[in-house]
């Protein structure tokens, strides 16, 4: 709210710098439109969604990614060997490169699966009486899908409680996506930012591993892979060493 107030005070009609400026402008244009949804409360929720869904989740997943590379140096080495062999050390990473990097792509998807930073979906409400798999769901029932259960279901994952990039590789080493990979939910309510999140994770992760080797600080013998419970499942604070390759 303070940020919105600050935008109101400093903005000019001719110069929009960000989402809030454009939203304030739209509020002004629609202030006399009946039932307009452009209001301050909606803006607050929209900005919150952008931060939580578009920034915090990706940053948390990257924190897990680096922690896993420290915990599993053999996997980090295989990723770097593939990057070096296919792209070289000076290539600027592009999202299209994922098609040439099946192992690296598999590692990134396994990071998303194994970290499982969102345990349940945003609550939904049944709009009419219905039946799901034989269960009666009355109108008005609040429903929260358990994403975490699909990502660790032994019926669909050979080693669900192990960090295993092989979950996303076929017998010939080609990348494959699993039906049970529902980290971004599914159907009409699938995460709108899925493509952007995967793009960000791929480019940042590959760029970091292309440049650095990640190791634990000298003397650190135990790596804590347990999570801190919250709106997203975060790793405990940790330190690492980034050594230029």
TrEMBL record:
<keyword id="KW-0560">Oxidoreductase</keyword>
<dbReference type="GO" id="GO:0020037">
    <property type="term" value="F:heme binding"/>
</dbReference>
<dbReference type="GO" id="GO:0006805">
    <property type="term" value="P:xenobiotic metabolic process"/>
</dbReference>
<comment type="similarity">
    <text>Belongs to the cytochrome P450 family.</text>
</comment>
<dbReference type="InterPro" id="IPR001128">
    <property type="entry name" value="Cyt_P450"/>
</dbReference>
<keyword id="KW-0479">Metal-binding</keyword>
<keyword id="KW-0492">Microsome</keyword>
<dbReference type="GO" id="GO:0006082">
    <property type="term" value="P:organic acid metabolic process"/>
</dbReference>
<keyword id="KW-0256">Endoplasmic reticulum</keyword>
<keyword id="KW-0503">Monooxygenase</keyword>
<dbReference type="InterPro" id="IPR017972">
    <property type="entry name" value="Cyt_P450_CS"/>
</dbReference>
<feature type="binding site" description="axial binding residue">
    <location>
        <position position="191"/>
    </location>
    <ligand>
        <name>heme</name>
    </ligand>
</feature>
<dbReference type="InterPro" id="IPR002401">
    <property type="entry name" value="Cyt_P450_E_grp-I"/>
</dbReference>
<keyword id="KW-0408">Iron</keyword>
<dbReference type="GO" id="GO:0005789">
    <property type="term" value="C:endoplasmic reticulum membrane"/>
</dbReference>
<dbReference type="InterPro" id="IPR050182">
    <property type="entry name" value="Cytochrome_P450_fam2"/>
</dbReference>
<keyword id="KW-0472">Membrane</keyword>
<dbReference type="Pfam" id="PF00067">
    <property type="entry name" value="p450"/>
</dbReference>
<protein>
    <recommendedName>
        <fullName>Cytochrome P450 family 2 subfamily J member 2</fullName>
    </recommendedName>
</protein>
<dbReference type="GO" id="GO:0016712">
    <property type="term" value="F:oxidoreductase activity, acting on paired donors, with incorporation or reduction of molecular oxygen, reduced flavin or flavoprotein as one donor, and incorporation of one atom of oxygen"/>
</dbReference>
<keyword id="KW-0349">Heme</keyword>
<dbReference type="GO" id="GO:0005506">
    <property type="term" value="F:iron ion binding"/>
</dbReference>
<dbReference type="InterPro" id="IPR036396">
    <property type="entry name" value="Cyt_P450_sf"/>
</dbReference>
């Amino acid at each position: 709210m303070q940020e919105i107030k600050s935008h109101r005070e400093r903005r000019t009609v001719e110069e929009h710098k960000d989402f809030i400026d454009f939203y304030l402008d739209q509020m002004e244009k629609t202030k006399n439109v009946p039932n307009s949804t452009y209001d301050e409360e909606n803006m607050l929720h929209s900005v919150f969604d952008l931060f939580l869904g578009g920034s915090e989740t990706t940053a948390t997943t990257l924190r897990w990614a680096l922690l896993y590379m420290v915990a599993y140096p053999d996997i980090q080495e295989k990723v770097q060997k593939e990057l070096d062999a296919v792209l070289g050390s000076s290539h600027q990473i592009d999202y299209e490169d994922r098609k040439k990097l099946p192992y690296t792509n598999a590692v990134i998807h396994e990071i998303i699966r194994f970290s499982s930073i969102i345990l349940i979906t945003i609550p939904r409400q049944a709009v009419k009486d219905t039946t799901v798999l034989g269960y009666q769901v009355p109108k008005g029932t609040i429903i929260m899908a358990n994403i975490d259960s699909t990502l660790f279901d032994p019926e669909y994952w050979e080693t669900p409680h192990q960090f295993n990039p092989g979950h996303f590789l076929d017998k010939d080493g080609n990348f494959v996506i699993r039906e049970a990979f529902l980290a971004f939910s599914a159907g009409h309510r699938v995460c709108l930012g899925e493509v952007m999140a995967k793009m960000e994770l791929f480019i940042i992760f590959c760029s970091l591993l292309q440049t650095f080797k990640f190791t634990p600080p000298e003397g650190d013998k135990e790596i804590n892979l347990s999570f801190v419970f919250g709106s997203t499942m975060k790793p405990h604070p940790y330190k690492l060493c980034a050594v230029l390759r």
